[in-house]
Amino acid sequence: MAGPDEIETSGWRLTLPACGKKSLREFKIAVMLSADTAEVDRSVQDRIQAVAEYLSKQKAKVIDQAHPDIEPAEAHRVFIHLLRAATSRGQSDEAFARNFEAAGKVDPKDTSYQAWMLKGNTLSHRDWLNWNEARHRMRLEWARFFQEYDVLLCPAGATPAFPHNQKGERWERMVTVNGKPQPSTTQMFWAGFSGMAYLPSTVAPAGLTAEGLPVGVQIVGPQYGDFTCIRFAQLLEREFQGFVAPPGYQ
């Protein structure tokens, strides 16, 4: 995905750096269990904490509650606007006109997913440039962060697997997080926090919840550090927890 297209191959190549680490103890690891903007269910946090405790016992350098100096709520806001702008080409002219009119009526103080979606779907190029500039400032902060840490461990989602629900709009569909309803769109934070900044991540098994549902730990690395994420996942799956199929899995 990051490499040159057919035209660009005449002038440049992408070479991802190899990961020379051979054991978990060689890594310096940051751990982020939850975020105020996207609270994570305790069942997921417990499994990621178990991974962190295992890594500490293996003599890896683990720093709890460490993350880049980026406000999660702002990162989520930037991500949703850029994501919805990137997918806005799929709108018909009629749908764009309706969304443009609706976006003009959005209260500037409205921080709901629906409001961000409408704005993102109808961004002017000037506004997109401003959101993209915010993204690049965050990329610089991530780069500084990964000068100190090799990987960041965080949730892949706010909950384990939940029942399918196709009723209503996406932001109206709720999942239960620590006994409280949370819009399913809030879960998108855990994909966008790193993905919006062009960072690779790999998800490895972190064990099962008390109900027997699998939990994954997201391993985030620096830009072009794909092989570092993959190597860490390989070591973790080999030494901590391999994939265990849940009952009924085919």
Write structural notes for this entry.
- With 250 residues, this protein is an alpha/beta fold.
- The chain has a single domain, classed as Amidase signature (AS) enzymes (Alpha-Beta Complex), CATH 3.90.1300.10.
- Helices cover 38% and strands 14% of the residues.
- The chain contains seven helices and seven strands; from the N terminus they run βαβααααβββαββα.
- The chain has helices at 42-57, 72-86, 93-104, 113-121, 125-145, 189-195, 226-239; strands spanning 28-31, 61-64, 151-155, 174-177, 180-183, 201-208, 214-220.
- Strand 6 and strand 7 form a beta hairpin.
- Helix 2 packs across helix 4, helix 2 (72-86) packs across helix 5 (125-145) and helix 3 crosses helix 4 (113-121).
